[in-house]
Every structure is written in C-alpha cells, then in structure tokens.
Design goal:
By secondary structure, the chain is mainly beta. Helices cover 7% and strands 56% of the residues. The strands form 5 sheets. The chain has a 22-stranded antiparallel barrel. The longest helix has 21 residues. The radius of gyration is 27 Å and the shape is globular. Keywords: Cell outer membrane, Membrane, Receptor, Signal, TonB box, Transmembrane, Transmembrane beta strand, Transport.
C-alpha cells in the first residue's frame, strides 16, 4: 500500500491573511500531519521492510510530503537564507564539504597549494566569511575542524546566511553554518569504503555511522488524534526567527524558522495532541567514525619578465599525504515533558606530511644562476569539542541554554634548503620553522523566546572565553612565545510587529564587548572593542508561493586574533610576490559595514524554489591582504585599506527536469552571482576590493540514488570570474577566470549496497595569476604563476540499512 499525504504548511503572512486569523488553522493541520507521520515512524521502528528485510508488522511503503523542510526554512527565516539539506547534498554527488561549498550562491572557493581551501562570500576577504559548526564559532587558524574535508555523510545541512540579525555576530561577507547529523529514532547504519587516486598514488577512506533509539526499544507509541473539533487552543509554539544559526546559542541556524514552518517531522502542539510521558519517548543516539586519507598537492610554474626579458623562471611541485580521523557521538532525549537535553562531541586528529620541491633559473647582478629548493613539511592537528544543549518549555516561552568547550592543538614542522649556483660556485642556505599552537574555548549562552503569540520576541546573552598560546622557532629569528586571552560578552534582543499589507517587521539590537589581553608587545594590555549591531527585517508575502524580503543592519567584524599577533611566517620555497611571507598587524582596526539585502523568493512545484537577492555593503576600514616588498623579501599583511562600497546580484534555483523529458527524479541546482566593488578611499581608490571575483556560477544536473536499484549520477560545473589583485600603490595584478568540472556515475544493487565512480577536477582547473610591480630601475616587472591540480578519481562502495 502506498499512502500519499499532501501537506501545505501554514504560511506566515499569506495574501489576505492576518497572523491572528491564521492561528486556528495550525492545530488541525499539525494534528493530521503528526498522526500520519507518527504511525509511519512506528511502523518503520517495528520493522519496515524496504530493502532491509521482511516484517510481520503492518507497514506503509512510503509517506510523500509535498513541502520540503529546506524550502520552508528558507521561506520562514528572518533574513536572506539558502539551505542545502541532506537530499540536496546527495543530489550534488558531493564527496566532501568543499564540493558543496563551491556550488553555493555567492561563495568563492579557491584551493591552496597545500590542499586546503580559501572561502570568500561576495568576494570579500576570506576572514569576512564567518564559519560555524552547529551554530558555534570554530577555533581560528589552521587548528580549526577540517571543514573542507568533512565527509558529506556527516552533514545534515549547510546554511548560507546573507544578512545578520541581533541573535548572532554578523560578518561583512556572510555566514556559513554547517550542521552535523543529529541523533534520530529512525534506525540507520551507513558504511562506505573509498579509494582516491591521484598522481599515481592511492589513499583509502572509510566511514561508518549508526543512529537509532537507545536501548533495545525502537517502537514509538502512536499519538492519538484530538477530536475533530477541538477546543480553542494556544497557537503552535514559535520562537523568534533567526536568519542563521543561533551562532551564540549552539542551536541549528534555522531551528526557529522550523517552528514557524512545520515540516514532515514536526509534532503537534500540546493542546491538539496529548503529551507522551517522558519515559515513552526513547532517547536516541548517533555515532560516526571516519578515517579519511587524501593525496593532495599542486604543480606551479612561475615566471618573471623585466624589460622584455625573462629574469626568473621556476617549476614547483608539492606532494602531500593527509589523513584525518574523526569520532562524532550525539545523544538526544527528554528529561521530562518540559525538558529536553542534547549531548554532542567531535573528536578529530589529522596528520599532513610531504615534500615541496622547486627548481629554476634566473639572472641578477651576479649573472645567470640556477636555484633549487627542497623542503619537508609536517603538520599535526588535534581537536576536541563537547557541548550540551538544554531546552525548557514554560507555558508561554522557551528557554534554551548551551554550554560548550573545545581545545585544539597543532604543530607545524618545516625544514628545507635553498641552493643558488653561479656556474661552479654555489651557496646553500638551510632554514627551518617550528610552530606550536594551542587554543582553548569556553562558551555559555542562553536564549529566552516567547511562544504564546504569532508575533515573536526573544532575548539572549553569551559569555565566551578564548585562550591562545603560540611558540615559534624560526631560523634567523629570535624565538617567539605568545599568550593571548580574549573575553567576549554579549546581550541581544529582538521583537516582531505586524505592519499593513501582511508585512511583518523584526527589529533587533545586539551589544558586544571584546577584551583582548596578551604578552605580545603589539597587543597592549586591555585592548577593548565594543559595538552595537542594530538590524531590521521585513517579510511581505505576495501570494502563497511568492514573497519579498528586506534586511538592513550594521555589522562590525573584529580582526582575527591570528591577524593581530605580531609574528612572521616564512613562505614555502623561494620568496616572491606570488609566494610571500606572512606577518601579523597589531594595529589592525575593526571593519564596520552597513548592509542592505532585498530579494524575492518563490516556491516551484512540486518541490523546487527560486530566489533573487540584491545586496549592498558600505564598508569602513576595509580589511584586505596587502603584498609589499620589505627589504629584499615580499610579505603579505592584512591591513585597513580604506572605505569601500560592495554590491551585487545573486540568483539561485532548484527544480526538477521533467519539463525536459527526463525522469521525474532528475534535478537541476544552479546559481549565479554578479559581484562588484569600488574602493572609495585609501591608496587603491577607484579599484575593486583585492581578490573579489567579478562573478561566480555553478550548475549541477543529477539523477539521485534510489534504493529500489538502477543507475544514478550527475555532473557539476563551477565558474569563477577574474579578480583584481591591486594591493599597494604601484602593485597591480589579476586572477584569471577559472572553471572546474566534476562527473560521477554509480549504481544501486537492491538489498546489498551501491557503487560509485567519480572524476573530480576534470581539466586540471588552472589557476592563473599575474602581478606587476616597480623593478627599482624606473620600469615594471611582471610576475605570472600557473597552478594546476591533477584530476582525482574516487571509487566507492557502500551500503545503508
């Protein structure tokens, strides 16, 4: 028997409706949805066959719900928000988080020579993008959780937050919140084995996860429907809409939007359905273990031309092997009818090692020479994070409290030599760099949300303590030992009002104080930064499937602690304008921006969506990386480069491809962003923000995996436009446009598992960069570099039951 239940969730502000008039609809709709879904979950827990084996219990083959949770989260969230959920990730054929990120609207992902990625939103500086895991800021610097290589099976959803509200500290570029898988009562086991092949080398990967009810139970008692004509009841509980994750509360970014727009798994309000005793609702768990191996690296050709002649040319190759081990346990359950507790932890350990070699020729005052660089590189990272989320429901409000802590340690060990030969004479200069870092973070946050009215309010506070320790030994420099403490205190609040034309207005204010104390002479004891972040958001439904939204906010982006620390990190290999040293800047000021986002969002039948968003940023004290010549070495330093205006247009769409004559399960996901900026003051006045691409675009066509068997596959194309690299006066340059193409094909063997072959980075994805700078003799030299990444082949077998 197949049961199809069509559900159209109540929509806040639908045309011709007022919030108060809609309240009576919620209990009945949620009662029907919950009754059907609870019976389906109970049947599944008692042994729904699917491919997993027979059962004597009555069963439903499937439940089809028309409204996808990710669509409703986007429609009902405060602020401009795009949600990529589990189904989207599977359709994208994504193998890691990095594969998903470069297919998100307005996100610019650039691989680095050592196998990492640089992430920019709206093309702004990479530190202008805020990265969250489960709504919590992760550790800074390289010691953070390896976001780029997290297995896609670990991800529940990724949220692109374009506009801030009071609840979280915004970012001038935007926020990416990665929500990890959570514990559920549905039993599921996933096993995946993979080999990835590149440069003639192989690296194995293994992933295992299991989720379900804790203990020997598994059946969920069916809820009984309330009478057909229930007595008047309070509206469904709703929390204040947050556009993104409650970055400071630890809650998933769209948790509040989920309450506003109930989806397939939502439960009915207490007034419509009787509450189950706490002991009748089983605790659930999730456990994931992964061992991930990668072979990474790049080939780079550099060339310098001065006066029409080649004065330097080199070829470099980096070959590294990376391994990451991760353990992710989760535990959810009810302490009582009013209290719920979630415990979570993430433990990772990563090792990265390999060689960097380059050889080249050149001409200088001493004549023609040969140059040779050989370096061994070792890196080890350990990361531990644990947290507890407690929720208590009062009669007309909800209190959410989160306590979390993390510790990260990493060690970089580099040793190499640079040899320069003039004929038979040669000189070798050895060098070494040893860096040990540790970062500890504690955070306590709480949020109180009203639930008795269709118009919402919320209040919150947070206290955060972060401690950083750095010990550096570098050849030719004195040892560096630094200890920095950072204390953050936050209070915030927001409220919602009803306006004419079915419009709702949400206004909020966030007050934040940051105190930095450290042993670094460049960080005076007691450096204090305080700011207010006001925000306004309106949402106006035009009809049931189309709405218009506007966000206005003031955002302050404080510099990264690592950017403030006054220390130098030497370049890997020979120093050049395209391979500079990096140094800190204790005098770096906060970046402040007024932000405006406005756009239309529309649902597409049966489960698609399309959105168009216009954004404007007026930025003061813009932070960007400047490359300059200091003595005889090129250095890169983050600096305040003046004021700027940033604007652009973003469009995205998800839809089926039945209209092209393909099967109903074929999907299309596509997005495009046109980006523009102009420095209005400073040394680069009239230029664009350094590194901002003129456009980004991606398209993914996929036939998703079906448990009933058959082939699946897809193709993904991502494009990144050219970018200016104007930094210091007289130094100009550009990154050329680039493209990346991925293809995968697989098949499902019913009751056994699946196989998949993927070829990623078809065409080598050349990264071309050109720089021009004064040569000291009244002319200009041109430096060009071309980095290529060899195609990677994945072979995967797995099963899910």
């Amino acid at each position: 028997m197949r049961l199809e239940f069509l559900f159209s969730p109540a929509r806040s502000g639908a045309a011709g409706e007022r919030p108060a008039a809609r309240r009576a609809e919620w209990p009945l709709r949620e009662m029907l949805v919950t009754t059907v879904l609870t019976h389906a979950v109970a049947a599944s827990a008692q042994g729904m066959p699917d491919e997993r084996g027979a059962s004597d219990a009555p069963q439903l083959e499937a439940v089809t719900v028309t409204a996808r949770r990710s669509i409703e989260q986007r429609f009902f969230a405060t602020g401009s928000l795009v949600v990529v959920d589990r189904k989207d990730i599977e359709n994208l054929g994504a193998f890691s988080v990095a594969d998903v990120l470069r297919q998100l609207p307005g996100v610019q992902v650039t691989p680095t020579a050592d196998g990492g990625v640089e992430i920019r939103m709206r093309g702004m500086d990479r530190n202008a993008t805020q990265l969250l895991i489960d709504g919590q800021r992760v550790a800074s610097g390289k010691s953070q959780l390896p976001i780029d290589q997290l297995p896609s099976e670990l991800i529940e959803r990724i949220e692109v937050v374009r506009a801030p509200t009071a609840e979280f500290s915004g970012a001038t570029g935007g926020t990416l919140n990665i929500v990890l898988r959570q514990a559920t009562i549905q039993r599921e086991t996933v096993i995946r084995l993979t080999d990835n092949h590149v440069w003639g080398r192989n690296a194995g990967q293994a992933f295992f996860s299991k989720t379900g009810p804790l203990g020997g139970g598994g059946a969920v008692p069916a809820l009984r429907a309330a009478p057909a004509a229930p007595a008047p009841a309070a509206p469904a509980p709703k929390a204040a809409e947050a556009p993104a994750a409650a970055a400071d509360s630890g809650a998933p970014a769209t948790a509040q939007a989920e309450e506003r727009a109930p989806a397939a798994t939502d439960t009915a309000p207490a007034a419509a359905l009787p509450s189950l005793p706490a002991d009748a609702q089983p605790w659930s768990y999730f456990l994931a273990v992964s061992s991930t191996g990668y072979v990474v690296g790049s080939d780079t050709h550099r060339r310098t031309v001065d006066g029409g002649s080649v004065v330097a040319e080199s070829d470099a190759s980096g070959r590294y092997r990376r391994s990451d081990f991760s353990l992710v346990p989760r535990l959810n359950g009810r302490l009582s009818a009013s209290d719920q507790l979630a415990l979570r932890a993430t433990i990772t350990r990563g090792r990265f090692s390999g060689r960097y070699d380059s050889q080249g020729t050149g001409v200088d005052a001493g004549g023609a020479y040969n140059a040779l660089t050989a370096e061994s590189y070792g890196y080890e990272r350990r990361y531990l994070q644990a947290g507890a989320d407690w929720t208590h429901r009062f009669a007309d409000s909800k209190l959410e409290t989160t306590l979390s802590g993390s510790q990260s340690r990493d060690e970089v060990d580099r040793a190499g030599s640079f040899t320069q030969s003039y004929g038979a004479a040669s000189a070798t200069s050895p060098y070494s760099f040893l860096d040990n870092r540790q970062e500890d973070l504690w955070s306590l946050s709480s949020k109180l949300t009203g639930t008795s009215s269709a118009l919402l309010w919320s209040l919150g506070a947070q206290a955060e303590y972060r401690s950083l320790g750095v010990n550096t030994l570098s050849s030719g420099a004195a040892p560096v030992s630094l200890n920095v403490d950072m204390k953050r205190h936050v209070v915030w609040g927001q409220n919602e009002w009803e306006l004419p034309a079915n419009t709702t207005l949400t206004a909020g204010l966030r007050a934040e104080t940051l105190l930095i104390q450290g042993a670094d002479a460049g960080l005076p004891d007691g450096r204090r930064m305080s700011f207010l972040q006001p925000s306004l958001h309106t949402r106006t439904p035009i009809n049931d499937d189309l709405q218009f939204r506007v966000n206005l906010a003031r955002v302050t982006r404080n510099p990264s602690i690592w950017s403030l620390i006054d220390r130098s990190t030497p370049s890997q290999g020979s120093n050049s304008i395209s391979n500079p040293d990096t140094i800190g800047n204790p005098n770096l000021r906060s970046e402040v921006a007024w932000t405006l986002d406005a756009g239309f969002e529309r649902r597409l039948a049966p489960q698609g969506q399309v959105g168009v968003n216009l954004f404007v940023r007026s930025v003061k004290d813009t932070i960007a990386a400047l490359t300059t010549l200091v003595g005889n070495r090129w250095v890169e330093q983050r600096s305040n480069v003046g004021d700027a205006t940033v604007w652009g247009l973003e469009a995205d769409a998800k839809t089926g491809l039945g209209w092209l004559g393909l099967g109903s399960d074929w999907t299309l996901s596509t997005n495009a962003s046109l980006l523009q900026s102009r420095m209005t003051s400073g040394p680069n006045q009239g230029s664009r923000i350094p590194g901002q691409a003129r456009y980004t675009a991606s398209m993914n066509v996929a036939k998703p995996m079906r448990r009933t068997g058959g082939l699946f596959g897809g193709v993904a194309l991502s494009l990144t436009g050219p970018a200016q690299l104007n930094t210091s006066p007289g130094i100009t340059g550009r990154d050329n446009a680039r493209a990346m193409l991925d293809v995968y094909l697989g098949g499902v063997v019913p009751k056994l598992g699946y196989w998949r072959i993927g070829v990623y980075n078809i065409g080598n994805a050349r990264y071309d960069r050109e720089r021009s700078y004064p040569d000291g003799a009244g002319g200009f030299a041109q430096n060009s570099s071309v980095m290529t990444l060899t195609p990677r082949v994945y072979l995967t077998v797995g099963t899910q039951f």
